[in-house]
Every structure is written in C-alpha cells, then in structure tokens.
Amino acid sequence: MTKSIAWVTDSTCTLDPVYAKENHIYIVPLRLMLGDGCYRESVDITAEEFYDKLRLHDKAGSSQPPIGEFVELYESLKDRYDEIIAIHCSSELSGTLSTSIQAAEMAEVKVTGIDSKAGAFPLREMIKAGIHWHKCGKTVSEIKEKIEHMAHNLAFYVIPSSLQRLHRSGRVSGTQLLVSQLLKIHLLLKFEKGKVLALDKIRTFKKTKQKMLDHLKLDLGKIKDVCIMHVNNQAEAEELERELTVLDPNLRTEIMTFIPVVGILAGEGTVAMSWLREQPVV
What we know:
Layout: E1 5-10, H1 17-22, E2 25-28, E3 31-34, E4 37-40, H2 47-54, E5 60-63, H3 67-77, E6 83-88, H4 96-106, E7 112-115, H5 120-135, H6 140-151, E8 154-159, H7 164-168, H8 174-183, E9 186-192, E10 195-202, H9 205-217, E11 225-230, H10 234-247, E12 252-257, H11 260-266, E13 271-276
Parallel strand pairs: 1-2, 1-6, 6-7, 11-12
Antiparallel strand pairs: 3-4, 3-5, 8-9, 8-13, 9-10, 11-13
Helix pairs in contact: 3-4, 5-6
C-alpha cells in the first residue's frame, strides 16, 4: 500500500494554493520587509503588489520563516502522514532548509530533506514531479534521488536590471558597480550548484539576452518547457517568448512574475529564464 506523504516547502515555490491543498503541500511563507513593514510572502502580499510598493521604499529585504512556524506545522503533520518531505529554496542562498530540518527535530518527527538548489520555477517543477512519482508508487528515497537528479540538471539565468541592490547585499563589489555604471555593463548571472555566479559581463542588454539564448540553444532537444521570469518587465518577457517560439515552435513557454526575494536584489526590469534538462523517467 502506498504511504501518505506531506510536502513541506516555502513560498519561493510559486505553487498555486489550490493545487497545493489538493496535493498535501504545506507552504511556509518567507518574510519580506519594506520600510518598517513585514509581510508574509504570498499570504499578506502578492509579488505584483510587493513590486508596486518596492518603488516607494529604498529599504527592502527578506528573511527565512521563523523556526516556530515550522515546529508548529510539523507538530500538526506528524500523526497525519506516514512520510514528510521538506524541499526548499537553495541552501546556499537561504537558511530555510536548515531551519526546517531543525524544526522537525524539535517536533520529534522524521523528515526527508531535499535541497532544490534554486527556487521559483525549478522548485515548483520538482515538487510536481515528486507528487507524480509518488502516485506511480515510488518510495520516498527513490523520489529524493530523482528530484536531486533534477536539481543537478537545472538551468537558471538572470539578467539583473540594477547592481545597486546586489552591491548592498555584498554580491557585487563597489568597484564592479562603478565600472558597470560607467561602461553600462550588464551582468548575466547563473545558478550553479545552488549558488548565483556572475557568468558574463556584456556591454549591451541585447547582447546579454542573446548570450542567455545561446545557452538555451545548447539544450534544445533535451527540454520541453521554459519559464520566463521578470520583475515588472512584461514587455521584455513577451519578446523573449516570441524569440523562443522562433527557436523551437515545440517549446512550451510560460511567463511568471519573479519571486520577490530575487527581485529585491536584482531590481525592477530584471528578466530571467529557467529550464530543466534530462528529467528522469518514471
């Protein structure tokens, strides 16, 4: 008999709340700070609402959920499910996974932890795939192995619109910021093993976008879906979607508003693309 599974994740997963409820997914919201206000991501404020407010505040940040919220959740789940899988945004960028696992120990419940190495679209797809494999009769250890395979085969590229907030966060040096402003250099960032790395420094946005598309071209034939993410830049996202259709009419594309955690650092106008290659079969 198939064991029941509860999925614990965080609000960077971008999952539809109805889908989450139907599939025993419990989403613990990250905290977003604007000025002196604190919001639970996707509960107190949507991504779109957050970005509208972000224009009015120079002071903005984010933090992981408090450990007590996880403890309370695990206490409520431990007698209702046979297994619990906790899958969260990259442990290299947030302490959410570590906090989640610590909370499970405090609640004295066994949890299988998985590091998605990302967030947003890849995290969402990993959870959906895991639920599919569970319905196919896979064990928790088999599901974990398959999801970790996905995490090692994700592609995630970001073109930040501004280096100001990246500089404040310590991810870009003062010298890099000054040079980029003087020369109008654009960065192409890449998720690599859970970390965000500066892949290229390019003089124009058009060339930076083409470089991102060149990376996608290398994976054509291995992928079916591409997610385009943006921070209040719907027009550029739609232009990217048209270019993808020209590259491969069979590609399924979707446009998503970027999760605020990234938008806070990368700034309004940021665009990104993500896809998963060589997904493991059932």
